[in-house]
Amino acid sequence: MAFSRDNVIGFGLALSSSGFIGASFIIKKKGLWKAGAASGVRAGNGGYSYVFEPLWWIGLFMMIVGEVANFVAYAFAPAILVTPLGALSIIVSAVLAHFMLKEKLNKLGFLGCVMCIVGSVIIVVHAPKEHSVTSVQEIWNMASQMGFLLYVGSVLVLVSILILYFAPLCGHSNVLVYTGICSLIGSLSVMSVKALGISLKLTFEGNNQLLYPETWFFTVVLLACIITQMNYLNKALDTFNTVVVSPIYYVMFTTLTILASVIMFKDWEGQDGGAIVSEICGFIVVVSGTILLQMTKEVMEKLPSFKGNAYAAPPMSPTLTAGLCAGNADFQKCWDDVENSEEVLLSRQYSYT
């Protein structure tokens, strides 16, 4: 593919954002650990003490910087080009988790990381050029077409079911619940980001789009989506292993975002069949890579110490910690006992590293 100037700018911004976002996962999780240890109520159990933890705010700031870069990237390049580059944030977070959080990654996990990169490159190389848009009203017409309205309705129904029924029932034992909510809402937030980004871009070019109510509508939708994503992403990170959350979230989020973009912005119009097939094959490679990363969780769950628990580096997941502390009024003593068992747990990972 011959990159246009706008595509090159969007590509560069997306690359730079991946580093910030990938590192923010690790820093935020360390902040969540510290806050949970200090208050005794972790985010996965409904606690919000992390808002008083400076380390969590540093991670949040890094995530905001990365998201701002992504925000601008969507104004210059199509979602099919920008979104798959989120695989690089998976690599950053997986490698940092391996060294900083002791969430060990085996050789298959590293191979999965490589496959994520290769698949993303294939998608980027065959990505379509950005369609020219001259006003926010054009985007509104795209958003109000029947196909996209059906997609939005389906997302809202699924999210409501996940939040009201599945989250209380199995949110702490099934990683797909929290990440599913984040991914479904995330696909709508990306469409809002792209709409708002194009509006601001046109405004800076002298064509003021802030006068139109459609611009402010997209802004309100974006804020609502971000708040929802932040809440459930915190729950997912605090409950499950970062090496598991990141790739699963990436696959679901990217799949739904590409689907939403194809429906709303007609990204595949004008592309030949070969380019579309290449993009799909590239995405299959990425999905295959995430399956290998998912095997990290499955291998660890076979160890006796992790039976019935989503693998997470100590401190343990709130589900297992609550079971160990049942009937013990001294929570801090139990927490210390869990932390003191870290050497024993790590010694059993020899076959995994």
Automatic annotation (TrEMBL):
Stored InterPro entries: EmrE-like, Mg_trans_NIPA
Entry's transmembrane regions: 6-27, 47-65, 71-96, 108-128, 148-168, 175-196, 216-233, 240-263, 275-293
A GO CC annotation given for this chain: plasma membrane
GO MF annotations, alphabetized: magnesium ion transmembrane transporter activity
Location(s) in or outside the cell: Cell membrane; Early endosome; Membrane
A UniProt-annotated Pfam family: Mg_trans_NIPA
GO BP term, example: magnesium ion transport
Keywords: Cell membrane, Endosome, Ion transport, Magnesium, Membrane, Transmembrane, Transmembrane helix, Transport
Topological type in the membrane: Multi-pass membrane protein
Keyword Transport belongs to the record: yes
UniProt KW Transport keyword: yes
Summary of subunit composition and partner proteins: Homodimer.
Family label: Belongs to the NIPA (TC 2.A.7) family.
Role according to the record: Acts as a Mg(2+) transporter. Can also transport other divalent cations such as Fe(2+), Sr(2+), Ba(2+), Mn(2+) and Co(2+) but to a much less extent than Mg(2+).
Official protein name in the record: Probable magnesium transporter
Species name: Spinacia oleracea
